[in-house]
Amino acid sequence: KVVMDKFTRIQGDYKAIVQNPNPLIPPIFGSDEFGYCSEWNPAMEKLSGWRREEVMGKMLVGEIFGTQMMCCRLKGQDAMTKFMIVLNGAMDGQDAEKFPFAFFDRLGKYVEALLTASKRTDAEGAITGVFCFLHTASVELQQALTVQKATEKVAFAKLKELAYIRQEMKNPLYGIMFTRNLMEDTDLSEDQKQFVETSAVCERQLRKILDDMDLESIEDGYL
């Protein structure tokens, strides 16, 4: 955004950015001071499925983005209200940075992005509209994040199962320890004392295993 702002200030030509087909240019759309769509770049066409000529000149809020059967349908009235607040704030000079924004594209796919909105000015500094940039993840990154979330979900489920098993093993172990302590206070033969001592050693080993138990070591096949 800083680079783009510097570029537009130096060049004084927003079209050089908006209509640039370079894949590094993010989805961009904008409106004039009256709320009509004045910008819709190639990246926005690809993201939304709507061509530039289909949206230019339409009301950005109500005809393009809205809660009814609009070009880019928002999820609800609350989302639309927040979007309007962001646009009005940008028009007043209050830029919005990475505001959560989502809509349904032409094919009904739910698109999630982060919205950055800033005022657009002419050479004299007068506000002429709003410029909006969408920050979206690449397909590869989205797939990687999906896989990561699924992996984390499985790992969390295994951790919960492990915690349950460990607790279920500790309960009878404490019972064995309690029983052994009671036996130590009775008259035992030498053989019985040896059995009790062996039991104590086994209990300590088992308790150490349970205390040190973790999911990664179990998956690797050792404790």
Quick summary:
Belongs to the phytochrome family. By secondary structure, the chain is α+β, with helices and mostly antiparallel strands. It has two domains: 1-136, Beta-Lactamase (2-Layer Sandwich); 143-220.
Chain-wise SSE layout:
Elements: H1 2-11, H2 15-18, E1 28-32, E2 37-40, H3 42-48, H4 52-55, E3 65-66, E4 72-73, H5 77-91, E5 96-104, E6 110-121, E7 127-135, H6 139-184, H7 190-212, H8 215-220
Parallel strand pairs: 3-4
Antiparallel strand pairs: 1-2, 1-7, 5-6, 6-7
Report on the architecture of this protein.
This protein has two domains: 1-136, 2-Layer Sandwich (Beta-Lactamase); 143-220. The longest helix is centred in the C-terminal third of the chain and has 46 residues, at 139-184. β6 and β7 (127-135) form a beta hairpin. The chain has a five-stranded antiparallel sheet. The chain has a two-stranded parallel ribbon with strand order 3-4. The radius of gyration is 32 Å and the shape is rod-shaped. The mean pLDDT is 81. It has eight helices and seven strands. It is an alpha+beta fold. It starts with a helix and ends with a helix. The chain has helices spanning 2-11, 15-18, 42-48, 52-55, 77-91, 139-184, 190-212, 215-220, and strands at residues 28-32, 37-40, 65-66, 72-73, 96-104, 110-121, 127-135.
